[in-house]
């Protein structure tokens, strides 16, 4: 499939702090692998193997991990912004690297959109742009999209009051564009695709379609949503890589060492070389990345524990994210928190 994919991976991830204090948002791990890698794996399954990464915040961390993409079976090119150019500015900046028809992804979302089907739909509609949309209960916090019976866009409304729009569809951050669209984006300044480019194209009468077949969608905007996405994976709402918890509620790697007296309450994910001590309780809704250690009588519930973490004996971890290389002290309790190597911060619940 001669379609390239551009990931807008330059955001600061401010709302996701402290998880993103030292990590670009696309590198935040989902079931032990960076979100960006999860999304690239998915594209590869559709035969899309040329990827462009537009980076800005801590770009070396992305570059160092992915390199030229060979290790992941794809070809990766990079374009880095010195200063943030906004969504449209970042796309314009990558112009020379893009195909005639190309995909654009906000790099902080996880969804089950069928990309092959969306490309087919885009071609059938003969649209300049196709925007994937997702339904929300309360669209007043978002920009909504209105469309006609043929699925062509008729209006964009920014954060409407309930009486101002009948639509509850919002932009899902996945687009298919024809390259001609780039002629309508000015170069060299910050431009928002949502607030500037789309309304302009509509005004000029270009065909823009909505693709409304998104079953699962979540943006990883906050630590609370980061926890939610793992709980949703464990519920089987969205398959990730080779794991489908709708079929099997418990995944335990072959290299994990679990004491016979420990209690494992599904759904759980237990990664490589994890060690779980006597009388420990894991789950429900617990995710342990590789090389985590859970001591005697410790408890991990509704939480995501990253690699090389040590939850010491008698400690309790509930509804929390414990980041790489952290230690949860003996007999201590972590509730609704993100624990980094240097400090602990509460999660808004």
UniProtKB/TrEMBL annotation:
Nucleotidyl transferase domain span: 4-235
GO molecular function: transferase activity
One Pfam family hit: NTP_transferase
Entry superkingdom: Bacteria
Signal sequence, renumbered to the chain: none
Gene3D superfamilies found in the cross-reference section: Hexapeptide repeat proteins (2.160.10.10), Spore Coat Polysaccharide Biosynthesis Protein SpsA, Chain A (3.90.550.10)
Keywords, ordered alphabetically: Transferase
Family in the record: Belongs to the transferase hexapeptide repeat family.
Protein name: Nucleotidyl transferase
């Amino acid at each position: 499939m001669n379609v390239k994919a551009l990931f807008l991976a330059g955001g600061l991830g401010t709302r996701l702090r402290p998880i993103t204090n030292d990590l670009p948002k696309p590198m935040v791990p989902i079931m032990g692998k960076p979100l960006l890698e999860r999304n690239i794996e998915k594209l590869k399954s559709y035969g899309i193997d040329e990827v462009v990464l537009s980076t800005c915040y801590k770009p070396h961390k992305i570059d160092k991990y992915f390199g030229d993409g060979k290790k992941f079976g794809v070809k990766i090119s990079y374009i880095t912004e010195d200063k943030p150019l906004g969504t449209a500015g970042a796309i314009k900046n990558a112009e020379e690297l893009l195909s005639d028809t190309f995909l654009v992804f906000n790099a902080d979302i996880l969804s089950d959109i069928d990309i092959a089907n969306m490309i087919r739909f885009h071609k059938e509609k003969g649209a300049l742009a196709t925007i994937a949309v997702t339904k929300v209960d309360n669209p007043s916090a978002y920009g909504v999209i209105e469309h006609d019976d043929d699925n062509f866009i008729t209006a964009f409304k920014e954060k409407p009051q309930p009486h101002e729009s009948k639509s509850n569809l919002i932009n899902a951050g996945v687009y298919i564009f024809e390259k001609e669209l780039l002629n309508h984006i000015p170069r060299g300044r910050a431009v928002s695709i949502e607030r500037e480019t789309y309304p302009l194209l509509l005004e000029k009468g270009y065909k823009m379609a909505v693709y409304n077949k998104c079953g699962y969608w979540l943006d990883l905007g906050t630590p609370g949503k980061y926890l939610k996405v793992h709980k949703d994976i464990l519920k089987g709402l969205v398959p990730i890589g080779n794991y489908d918890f709708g079929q099997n509620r418990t995944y335990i790697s072959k290299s994990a060492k679990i004491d016979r007296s420990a209690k494992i309450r599904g759904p759980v994910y237990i990664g490589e070389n994890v060690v779980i001590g006597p009388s420990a309780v894991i789950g429900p809704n617990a995710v342990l990345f590789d090389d985590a250690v859970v001591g005697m009588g410790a408890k991990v519930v509704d939480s995501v524990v990253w690699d090389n973490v040590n939850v010491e004996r008698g400690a309790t971890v509930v509804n929390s994210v414990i980041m790489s290389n952290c230690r949860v002290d003996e007999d201590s309790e972590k509730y609704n928190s993100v624990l980094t190597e240097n400090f602990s911060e509460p999660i808004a619940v």
